[in-house]
Amino acid sequence: xxxxxxxxxxxxxxxxxxxxxxxxxxxxxxxxxxxxxxxxxxxxxxxxxxxxxxxxxxxxxxxxxxxxxxxxxxxxxxxxxxxxxxxxxxxxxxxxxxxxxxxxxxxxxxxxxxxxxxxxxxxxxxxxxxxxxxxxxxxxxxxxxxxxxxxxxxxxxxxxxxxxxxxxxxxxxxxxxxxxxxxxxxxxxxxxxxxxxxxxxxxxxxxxxxxxxxxxxxxxxxxxxxxxxxxxxxxxxxxxxxxxxxxxxxxxxxxxxxxxxxxxxxxxxxxxxxxxxxxxxxxxxxxxxxxxxxxxxxxxxxxxxxxxxxxxxxxxxxxxxxxxxxxxxxxxxxxxxxxxxxxxxxxxxxxxxxxxxxxxxxxxxxxxxxxxxxxxxxxxxxxxxxxxxxxxxxxxxxxxxxxxxxxxxxxxxxxxxxxxxxxxxxxxxxxxxxxxxxxxxxxxxxxxxxxxxxxxxxxxxxxxxxxxxxxxxxxxxxxxxxxxxxxxxxxxxxxxxxxxxxxxxxxxxxxxxxxxxxxxxxxxxxxxxxxxxxxxxxxxxxxxxxxxxxxxxxxxxxxxxxxxxxxxxxxxxxxxxxxxxxxxxxxxxxxxxxxxxxxxxxxxxxxxxxxxxxxxxxxxxxxxxxxxxxxx
Length: 632
Known about the structure:
Blueprint: E1 7-8, E2 15-21, E3 31-36, E4 47-52, E5 55-64, E6 78-81, H1 88-100, H2 105-112, H3 118-123, E7 145-146, H4 148-156, E8 162-166, E9 171-172, E10 175-176, H5 177-191, E11 195-199, H6 203-213, E12 219-222, H7 228-239, E13 245-248, E14 260-266, H8 283-287, E15 294-299, H9 304-311, E16 316-320, H10 322-328, E17 331-333, H11 349-358, E18 364-367, E19 374-379, E20 395-398, E21 401-404, E22 423-428, H12 430-440, E23 446-449, E24 458-459, E25 465-468, E26 475-476, E27 482-485, H13 488-492, H14 499-511, E28 522-525, H15 531-538, H16 542-556, E29 562-568, H17 571-578, E30 584-589, E31 592-598, H18 602-618, E32 625-628
Parallel strand pairs: 8-15, 8-16, 11-13, 11-14, 12-13, 14-15, 17-28, 18-25, 18-27, 23-25, 24-26, 27-28
Antiparallel strand pairs: 1-6, 2-3, 2-5, 4-5, 4-6, 7-16, 9-10, 19-22, 20-21, 29-31, 29-32, 30-31
Helix pairs in contact: 1-2, 4-5, 5-6, 9-16, 14-15
């Protein structure tokens, strides 16, 4: 990145400023005083360089106040840019998120403020943009949602309501109905003269939502595929108010949008909205801590973390009446083995007949939980898993033959238990499914949509079979005539705590792309799903499923009903940290210690963890990684 010269500071004292160092060391998460010479300006939030520990260090100016330091202050050595990129509101947000995750503020600031691109900054028009105005386009009403019109009216009046929104299923033209209905909330906010920030899990959703809202006001997109200069360009447009609507993935939640009136987050429990860098905040952690804005948390299902906000009366529930749901939703079945007459094939005869009949009226969707070909194989004789003879890694079947997924070698299979050479698959990927379905429906086009083969965004209303993995499902114009969800047990049998919720969310998403039962739309959940999860989708009762899940987690002391932290490190270090905590401890096991307390004691736990982390950092002890409310 080309760097333009900043402002060199003469070495003499003048006014005092407070700076926040850009450092990963937790014990340096505090403000330090430096001198600012007369005639030199360093606005709040601008980037500077300072001398710290004998080295040049990047920092942000976060305060202008007389210093309490008794000795001589070192001067800042350079004003990198006079532009205020870390606004007071975003600094406060970063500090709040850092505390909620027992982390350090500079780590969150790194997520919020992109790297500087000097040439972009120099060429940018930083004049404040005009205030939003009421859209002239036709907007949908929220009469189908109980409490929906009241929420919109509060937003139009410039108020700050907060709601958890259960969106109606279905497709309007070539877009999911929830995106069509979202126009009402966005239009209400723009009519109040305020701007909108929308956070969605995937880039495809960013592009789709941006296109749907493009006629309501100026839209910018922020996501991970932007180049660093482009990301900084979008950041500057948002900072200067040169757009009405910002749509982005998880990092967009920190966008410094002036006069922000509404922030929308869609599918807040989606793993794509979980940050993978310390201190590992989710987008929802930031959303609920953004002040002076209305909040709308939407989904076709009901994330358990959103249900907790309703339970605590932090947000209102906006949902359709049951009769409205039934009129809009597809018919969903989850037949057990007896209903299928013992047919254990991946696509039983009953499901095959359903799809074949639906193909007379339009496209059908087959949802499979994973990409790839054959992910795992077993000996056909004794049922034991087959491992690589070179590295003991798992073996998969590819179009090129049997190969190890670890070392990549093509191998000749021989079972270590019985010596058998015949194998059978027990984890089938989308590519193998595409081959199987192609043979079963030879006269119909079969489309594969996933990250490996390429994601298809939209398909027409003509008959075809679409095979897709989670998050890759195309929208069918007018909705799918039917859908089959394969290998459902694979989705619910994962060992993590959120496996059932994740599966239910994905199944609701699939069912939401299918036509209503009145228009013949049907969905079948196959492959031995966990019964309670499947029944929630059959009944279209996402809120009830989430409420029961939350109640059980309270009894079992699991998040989000309890505050938990997962600590990882060496066993001796974990023992030392655990001994200082006033909490319920599980472990350490395999280098991990689970710490948990009731939510009312959560702040005390966070304070303890932050203090311990800072102490260990200052003493240069081995690092213990902390993940608050991490997936278990």
